[in-house]
Amino acid sequence: MLRQPHDTKQDENEARLRVVRYYSDVNSELVPDEVREARIARVRELEAMSDEELEKLGLLREDIVDHVFQEAHFI
């Protein structure tokens, strides 16, 4: 199977949001709606930051979902 390169930043962001939706779906029965929505909002907030701003927070762009959903990793 051939891998397609990411054509745009938007493609990468959409892929990350699919991961967020996955974690959200997995946790839908375990986590209150407010918490789940707050996590998704936080991912969007971090995704909107520049790489320099993320670096000041000690984050890499590819680690945003893991960072926000770190408590969900026990599943």
Topology at a glance:
Elements: H1 9-26, H2 33-47, H3 51-56, H4 64-68
Helix pairs in contact: 1-2
Explain this structure:
By secondary structure, the chain is mainly α. It has one domain. 59% of the residues lie in helices and 0% in strands. Helix 1 (9-26) packs antiparallel against helix 2 (33-47). The model has no long low-confidence stretch (mean pLDDT 77).
Q: Which keywords apply here?
A:
75 residues; 4 helices; globular
Concise summary:
With 75 residues, this protein is an all-alpha fold. It has one domain.
- First-to-last CA distance: 29 Å
Which structural category fits the helices and strands?
Answer: mainly alpha
Write the element-wise H/E pattern from the N-terminal end onward.
HHHH
Task: Extract low-pLDDT stretches.
Answer: none
